[in-house]
Amino acid sequence: MPSKLETLIYKVNDDLFQKINKRFTSIDKRFDSIDKRFDSMDNHFDSIDNELENHRRILNNHTSALLNIESKLNIYSDMYENNKFKINELDTRVSALETN
């Protein structure tokens, strides 16, 4: 049979263990709460990242379309300059023929 001192030591140890256990449980709950907040923030940032990626795709599509239009405008501009040159050349020939 344990002595009074041993019983007291067991009781004190048991009380300390219970207090420490409660504190660890409390700390664990706090970490769980913090972990949930981080998960929520992570989901929020993933959502923002997805939106930004969609905007990047749209911007890339618009940029490609603008470059395509610019390319076509350059082709039409070259055609216009070429036709303008031919018209001026014909005007010069007609003028030369009219003077003769």
Which keywords apply here?
single chain; 100 residues; mainly alpha; 1 helix; rod-shaped
Q: Please, could you describe this protein's structure?
A:
By secondary structure, this protein is mainly alpha-helical. Helices cover 96% and strands 0% of the residues. It contains one helix and no strands. The longest helix is centred in the middle third of the chain and has 96 residues, at 4-99.
Chart the SSEs and their pairings.
Blueprint: H1 4-99
Helix content: over 70%
Class from secondary-structure proportions: mainly alpha
Shape: rod-shaped
Number of H/I helices: 1
End-to-end Cα distance: 143 Å
In short:
With 100 residues, the chain is mostly helical. It has one helix and no strands.
